[in-house]
Amino acid sequence: MAIKVTVWNEYVHEVGDSAAAKYIRQFYPNGIHNAIKDNIAADDLEIRAVTLQDPEQGLPEDVLNDTDVLVWWGHCAHHMVEDALVDRIQTRVLQGMGLIVLHSGHYSKIFKRMMGTSCSLRWREIGEKERVWVIDKQHPITQGVPDSFVVPNTEMYGEPFGIPNDAHDVFISWYEGGNVFRSGVTFQRGAGKIFYFSPGHETFPIYNNPDVAKVIQNACRWAAATLPPQKTDCWNCDPPVETVTTVNPLKQLDTKDLHEKAE
Ligand code: ZN
Fold it and tell me: What CATH number should be reported for the domain whose range is 3-232?
């Protein structure tokens, strides 16, 4: 059965009459979401592309519930994403939906919610070279990816990266300007797997790079839930009703002597 992938994009930078928008449309004529969709296409992935501009911000209940892996690209419209939608995505992740957060999505509401930390980083936009190194050669996300690959022009994202200490490092990047960055990290939240991958600044055709596309494609397969949705006990879910049916085993113990001897 194919893995159902939904690629979400705020779809702001690519739209309009500005020089920047026209420039970006030269390599992403149908938006970042459709570029990712086309470039990660595979027989085992059933991919749809949606945007913030679509009804219900692109993720109505039926779409979200029919998604095995959600891929997220956002930058200047993080604040536009409704908190109620963030709640629903969080619940789905805790139940087992995969979440892949790309580039400037480090500051998205959903990534910050799942991390619980600042998610801050250094950045510099001078179009410098980035070399992405594989750290975990055994990880499913790095299969078929060379030991290192170059993104010729990129926005630098540098350490310190404000993510929690349970990050598993899959990639680390070196930049021409001397900085380094944990450019690919995984997390587990509830039953859901999360992957953050930094390459993808909008003014360079980074998602057309076959190595970058391969990483995202692998990540979709890795993050897809292998089990049916799991029940959660997260703070914004209805708590499960439980009935205690077993006898309290401690009731059988007479610890009076122990207590008295201890005194
Ligand atoms: Zn950027």
Answer: 3.40.50.880
CA of 104 to the centre of ligand 1 (A): 6
pLDDT, tens digit, 9 for 90 and up, residues 63-81: 999 999 999 999 999 999 9
| 105 Cα to the center of ligand 1, angstroms | 9
Exposure string over 62-78, b if 16+ CB within 10 A, otherwise e: ebbeebbbbbbbbbebb
Cα gap 223→211, rounded to integer Å: 18
Instruction: Return d(Cα 101, Cα 107) in angstroms, integer.
Output: 10
Residue 124, Cβ density class (10 Å: 0-12 exposed, 13-18 middle, ≥19 buried): middle
Question: Is residue 78 a contact partner of residue 52, using CB atoms and an 8 Å limit?
Answer: no
Q: What is the 119 CA–ligand 1 centroid distance (Å)?
A: 15
Q: How far is CA 233 from the centre of its chain?
A: 21
Q: Say how many Å lie between the CA of residue 192 and the centre of ligand 1.
A: 26
Instruction: Classify burial at 123, counting beta carbons within 10 Å of its beta carbon; exposed 0-12, middle 13-18, buried 19 or more.
Output: middle
Q: Residue 27 burial (CB < 10 Å; 0-12/13-18/19+)?
A: middle
Burial class, 210, CB count within 10 angstroms (exposed 0-12 / middle 13-18 / buried 19+) = exposed
Kindly report, residue by residue over 205-225, the tens digit of the pLDDT: 999 999 999 999 999 999 997
Interval between CA 202 and ligand 1 midpoint (Å)? 6
Helix (H) or strand (E) holding 223, with range, is helix 210-223
Residue 250: count other Cβ atoms within 10 Å of its Cβ: 7
